[in-house]
Prior knowledge:
This protein is of the alpha+beta class.
Amino acid sequence: MSATAFSTLESLIRTMTPDEAARTAAAKHRKEIEDWLTSDLGIIRMRETGSWHHGTALDRFSDVDYFVSMRDSRPSVSSTALEDLRASLSRGIQGAFVSIDRPAVRLRYFDNGPDVEITPAYYQETDDYDIPDPDSAGWIRSNPAVHLEYVDRAQKETDGRAKGLIRLVKTWKSWNNVPLSSFYLEMRTAQYALGNKPIIYDWDLRDIFKSLANNGFREMNDPTNYGRRITTGTSNLAESITAKYAVEEAARLARLAREAAEADDHSTAIRHLLTLFNSEA
Length: 281
């Protein structure tokens, strides 16, 4: 059967889903980190968060994220906790380059396994944690469970397609080096999916980019109503302009691909999609 725009996008989703080798490497790294931090810092708990936990990670692009519940009382400035964690991991983990990348400590592994981000977290109540503020030396409140529940609800209510659409949008961002936050795009896309059922990948790829282009780039209210504002991830005017043009071009290419598919010109539709994803095949 000849390839279509829809089948091309389904194939891309499968390609970008982490395979068993990546999952095995991630599990090995987790055990090593958890064992070390338990013995060295006496951490209470280590829990997976982020895109790997949500089921929206990209092979070769997405970090594996963890919260580690710290045993001592929370220091007044988050830089203290980050430096203590960085120093410990530098002592105990030999196969990675360790550095602070707010709000976490990042480990870049030398074995081609996925990078890991470890966030020092201080439990408060009802699964709330204080974690380092990405933009200052202070702290912010976070609850990773509510975002997992939101993405899972979108997945359930779209017959298992919301996470595929999220992967497509994040693949576009990664393959085109678009300076937008993956978390921002994930929450935007999950929110879009819940309001635009059923999901048909080539139709909705066009419409999510159209929505992003028309609405501009602003911080969004957390759709879980947790109260946190979600930033775009752009850090200056140049990045904002770059992201704006990238989204507008994505909206144009996704629209052209859909128009070609509607005319049964599948080769042209696929060509526009490959350009959209900055891919040659």
